Structure formats: C-alpha cells, structure tokens
Amino acid sequence: MPEQISIYELIVNATLLVQIVMGLLALASLVSWMMIFQRWLLLRRTLNELDAFEDHFWSGVDLRELYSELIQEDNLNSIENLFVVGFREYTRLADQAGADAEAIMQGVQRAMRVALMREESRLETHLPFLATVGSTSPYVGLFGTVWGIMNSFRSLANMSQATLASVAPGISEALVATAMGLFAAIPAVIAYNRFAARVEGLMKRFEAFSDEVTSILHRAAHAQATQQ
Amino acid sequence: MVWIRDYSLPLVLALLVHLVAAAMLLQGWTPAPKIADVIKPQVVNASLIVMQAPAKPAAPAPKPQPKPAAVTAKAKKTPKPSATKQPSTAEKAKAAAARKKAAEAEAAERRRLQLAALGDMADAALEQSLERESVSLLRDEEAQIAQSYRAEIYELVRQNWSRPPSARNGMSARLLVELIPTGEVISVAVVEGSGNAAFDQAAEQAVRQARRFPVPDNNSQFERYFRRFYFLFQPEDLLR
Q1: In this complex, do B13 and A37 lie within 8 Å of one another by their Cβ atoms?
Q2: Which CATH number fits domain B137-238: 2.170.130.10, 3.30.1150.10, 1.10.150.20, 3.30.1200.10?
C-alpha cells in the first residue's frame, strides 16, 4: 500500500509556477494578518482615546486651559489634535483686530475639516490592501490550481493506462493552492468589512465632535463681536 | 522608528497565527493508517511446559498441587488459528479424546497410588503432574502440527483468491470445507455470507480452485482437524 502523501511533500513536489503562486499567497496571508492586527490595535486605541477625551472635554474644563495644556504635550492623539487645530485657528483669527465672526468660523471649520480628512486617511490606510487580498487571492489560488491540474492531465496523456492514482496527487497538489488562496482571502474580507464599518463609525463621532467644538467657538466668536 | 513600533507586535501575532495553522495542518493531515488485522505469527510456546517439569523435583513440597488445567489452557491459547476454525464435531471429538486421555491418566495414577506407600505422597503427586503434563504436551504438539498445516492451507487459498472490487474491510464470509483424507476438496458451502454475493462467490471459488490441500498423513489427526473445517474470509486478512 502506498504511503500517505503528506502536505509537505505536496508543496515541495509541486511545479515551480504553483510553488510561486503558493509563496505569493502565503506572503499575502502573512501581510494581511499583520495589517489586521495592526488595524485592530490602532482602531481600538483610537476609540479609547476618543472616549477618554470626550469625557474630559465635557467635564466642564475651560477650553483655553485645555488648549494650553495640550500644546505642551509632544504626542497628540487624533482627537486631541483635531481640537488643538480648531482652537489654534480660532485664537489666531480672533486675536487679529477687527476680525469678522463669520470669517473666523470659516477659518476654524476649514482647519478642522483638513484635520478630519487627515485622520480619516490615517485610519483607512491598509484597508485597500485587505480588500485587494480578499478579492484577488482566491483567483490567484485558482490560477495555481488550474495550472497544476493542466499539468497533471497533460502528463496523463502520455500514459497507456490512466488510473486515479496517477492523477490524484497532481490534483491534490494543485488544490493546495486554492486552499491557500481561500485561507488568505476569508480573514481579509471579514477584516475589511469590519474595519471599514468601524472607521465609518469613528469618523461620524469625529465629525460630531468637531461640529460641537465649532458651535462652541461660534458662540464665543459672536459674543466677542458684540462686545466690540 | 515609528514603523517598528507600530508593526512589530502585529507581525509577531501574524507569524504566530500562521505557525499555528501550519502546525495544525501538518499534524492533522495524515490520518493514522488503520492497521489491518494480519495473522499473528504462530509462536511455539512449548518451552513453557518443558521448563516447569525439571523445576518441580527441585522443590518437592508436601503438596505441589499442579494445575495442569491451567497449563493446557495457556498452551492452547497461544497457537490461535486465525483463518480456520474447527467445526463443533471436531471440537467435541477433541474434547472427548481429551477426557478419555485424562481418564486413562487418572486410572494409571490411581493404580500407582495404590501400589505406592502412603509416605510417598509427594512423590506420587509429582508423578501425576508429570504424567498430565506429558499428555498436555502431546496435545499441544498435535495442535501445533495442525496449525502448520492450517497455515499452508491458508496460504494456498490466499494465492487462489482474487479479491472482487466490491470487497470492503469488515466483510466476512464463513465457508464450511470438507476434505477427503488425500486432501482433496469434496464440498464447499457458504455458511455465513458477507451480504455481498460477489465476495461470497470469490471466496468459494478460491477454495475450489485450490482443489487439493496439504493434510497430515496421520489419519486420526486428519479426522480431528481437517475432515470438516470452517474457513473465514476477511479482506483485512489478505490486505498486507
């Protein structure tokens, strides 16, 4: 009775092209898992920071104090940065003599929008990579499989009598490529969908926060204008 | 470096995931091959009995109380036939012969006991044990000879058997084979079918094609072991 073929032998004895495909897929899987973990940690950290800062912000702290506190720090996290950018723009414009309240608010809004867009692009980095792995690696695996099966059938053509045992190893070897493609694709697709939804949720909260800050500054700007 | 700080932990985790996946794959890929039931080697275990006999006189206890029954049971167990089984008639004959022999031995023993002095109790017991052991030894030897013939018959049938494609592990067919003293097969009948007609037929055909089996020249042995016997076909047996 023939020895059971181990998966190691299947991979080692595969055709060069199939091996290259397998290597690519293994690399894609490794990198996509790396991205998954990195995104996961980053998004979790961002959410925690957002919660913490919002709590602090609405605890009745004076905004000027908060601002001067924050600009002392070196590493501002995303939500703190959003606030600092908006407030800095406000103080700069408000300090100029005879500044119009509407002009101040337009400047603040623009500054915060820029900060928001930066933040969004930071949160969304690598997500396109996950989407690409998720959508293409099954095809890459399939390509390896088709190639392997083509080869095993071609070698079958030279045989006088075809048995299942002469095709089966080739097909089995080829199917490893598809399995690897799916192995890479499934986590990538799941992670992409999940992370895209989480980024969207986070961005909504950022926008809401920036609107709230804008409205507070708006009130302050108008108060200042009427005083003058 | 920001890159190293941000990505070293994810990289380690990703590597871990892949190593675990690879380990599981390599571990669980090859199923443990099912070891087919092959015939166990026919171990000759006669030495067990021979060794005991000289050991006894060395320690003539007042009542050695040998247990010949246990010894015979042990001796019978070792050369277990794997392919052939005795029909009940042969079994009965065997048992009867054994009983007869035991009775003879006992009669001789009683006679000897009457002759012997009462003080020679230990000696007599020893004699008795030796006698019984020689009986069991003889029977053991016979069984071993029969076993060797059985192995030859088995081999012959195995060579003649072409396994039908529909044969599966776990099937078994029991045939009743009748021979004449020259070893020729006079009848083959399926006693217990496997449920697969092709398999049963192939088994029957194998025995018929063998036509003639090697049998012991000793007539009493032939009668006891090979006049009628069962042949058990199991695909695992033949799948080496």
Answers
A1: yes
A2: 3.30.1150.10
**CB contacts, 8 Å: A1 with chain B:** 33, 239
- Domain range list for chain B: 137-238
Q: Quick check: pTM over 0.90?
A: no
* Closest by CA position to B132, among listed B54, B53, B211, B197: B53
Which residue is listed with tokens 């390509």? Answer: A143
Lowest mean pLDDT among A112-126, A211-225, B122-136: B122-136
Size of interface A-B (CB pairs under 8 A): 43
Alpha-carbon dihedral sign for residues A216, A220, A222, A223: positive
Q: Tell me how close the Cα of A6 comes to any Cα of chain B, in angstroms.
A: 6
Q: What is the DSSP string of A3-34?
A: PPPPHHHHHHTS-HHHHHHHHHHHHHHHHHHH
Q: How many helices (H) and strands (E) does chain A have?
A: 7, 0
Of A4, A8, A34, the CB nearest to B11: A34
